[in-house]
Amino acid sequence: MLNFENTEIAFSSKSNNDLRKSRFLFKLVARSWVVNIGKHVLNFLLAIRFPLRPFVKPTIFEVFCGGETIEECDHRIAKLDNYGIGSILDYSVEGSAEEEQLNKTAEMIIRTIDKAEHTKAIPFAVFKVSGIASDRILERKSWHDQEMGTKEKAEWSRVEERMHKIAKTAYEKDVPLFVDAEDYAFQPAIDDITWRMMKIFNKKKAIVYNTIQAYRRDRYEFLQSMHEKTHQEGITYGVKLVRGAYMEKERERAAENGYPSPIHKNKDATDKCFNNCLRYIIKHIKDFALCNGTHNEESTYLLTELMDQYGIEKNDKRIFSAQLLGMSDHISYNLAHEGYNVAKYVPFGPVREMMPYLIRRAQENSSAQGQTGRELGLIKHELKERKKDRRHGERESEMDNTLANKKMEERA
Ligand SMILES: Cc1cc2nc3c(=O)[nH]c(=O)nc-3n(C[C@H](O)[C@H](O)[C@H](O)COP(=O)(O)OP(=O)(O)OC[C@H]3O[C@@H](n4cnc5c(N)ncnc54)[C@H](O)[C@@H]3O)c2cc1C
Asked: Which numbered atom of ligand 1 lies nearest the CA of 291?
């Protein structure tokens, strides 16, 4: 029986020290004033190029990131694999306006696809279009396509070339590829280019996945209309379903620019939209491949119930659940233990360049008070249980490290 309260399974890969570190971090970020002040302090320290690495790497970085390079993530990948959980290498360096940097990011994404081709424990690759396109061109292409001049058109065609190269590599290496959803201001261009890649590469199966942000008021209808289009085209519709990560920013931008907020009016409406999208996809699963990207227990239970209702096997290749590294292990580990397909986003990149990602994680954990409190409660519970059996945590961790090292040796 799937039970997210089972902390023994949830934290079986964690030593007591790992758990204490997570407890400390979750306690810290649960205080929104700490996160708000911390954000400004970190941005200031970044601006004066203060050497943050020695403080950040063994703490928040270690909890939420796999490493600074692909190779550094190997240990994490093997560790998750021991528990039947896949890894999705996420090169989380933020976008740039420099062509050279955009090309470098595209090359790094291709390296993650190469890595996935040779590593069974990496079921997907992922990237953000804003990593290979400047924000400015994404916004122009989204809303002012007809007004774009020759220079802008040339810039956009370089973005298309990068995107095509990434998707073609994924296709040739048979590695399904998630295209993350981003700001409302960029999303029309992202949706359009993703659709064009799907048409080319999803003929036999879902290689390219579009991301649906259920916090957007228009996304349920969008999902249905895309389903119709993919159906007509005779291709599989790959969908990563998430709630959406940029709510505050979207609301502020809409108010500043005088257009109605694209976000649902409250959390309840977002939850309903998410669960309706889930119901729709599972009902039409023959046309879809799904990644349920959520830390929400109710939506995860709903997925398992729907799979049961429609007679879908737990390990059906078309359906995965995914969480972010360092978050909601109680969901990932318990799902995997029950035989469902699960993967974790494993973000990586140089510590300094990962700071915006880490700040976002801290903010998310501080604004999602309920969820942070929930995780903290589960961690505390497990630590208490382990105190009753003092050696348990360290023994698990030793076993875990030995297994992980053995797997790495086998692969080498
Ligand atoms: C594997 C994975 C991949 C992801 N990929 C992306 C991506 O490509 N693009 C992206 O934008 N995000 C992405 N996210 C982040 C995701 O969108 C959410 O921000 C995050 O997962 C929290 O939502 P939840 O479903 O886990 O849980 P919950 O904690 O139940 O939901 C929190 C979310 O609900 C919504 N919400 C909260 N309050 C309100 C309110 N008052 N009104 C309306 N809505 C509200 C917001 O979207 C908020 O993030 C991803 C997450 C995961 C786990």
From this structure: 1
The residues, any chain, with a CB within 8 Å of residue 115's CB and separated by 6 or more, are: 70, 89, 122
Quickly list H helices, 267-350. 267-283, 297-309, 329-337
H/E stretch holding 195:
helix 187-201
Residue 412 has pLDDT above 50, yes or no: no
Question: Does the residue 43 lie in any domain?
Answer: no
d(CA 300, CA 278): 10
In a domain, 252, yes or no: yes
Pocket test for ligand 1, best of 4, 183, 191, 243 (most atoms within 8 A of CB): 243
Please report whether residue 151 resides in a domain. Answer: yes
Other Cβ atoms less than 10 A from the Cβ of 103: the count is 14
Query: Which is the closest atom of ligand 1 to the Cα of 242?
Result: 17
Residues 6+ apart with CB under 8 A from 306: 278, 279, 282, 312
Looking from the CA of residue 345, the nearest atom of ligand 1 is 1
Check which CATH number belongs to the domain holding 71 and give it: 3.20.20.220
Residue 286: CB atoms within 10 A of its CB come to: 8
Q: What is the mean pLDDT of residues 345-361?
A: 89
- The number of distinct structural domains making up the chain is 1
Two structure tokens written together for 395: 């023994």
Q: How do residues 292-329 score in pLDDT, each as one tens digit?
A: 999 999 999 999 999 999 999 999 999 999 999 999 99
Indicate which residue's Cα is closest to atom 16 of ligand 1.
Answer: 244
Domain hosting residue 133, numbered range: 67-354
Cα–Cα distance for residue pair 384/378, rounded to 1 Å: 10
Look at residue 85 and tell me whether its pLDDT is greater than 90.
yes
Q: 202 alpha carbon to ligand 1 midpoint, in Å? A: 26
Taking CA atoms, 238 is separated from 223, 303, 373, in Å, by 11, 16, 33
Assess if residue 95 is contained within a domain. yes
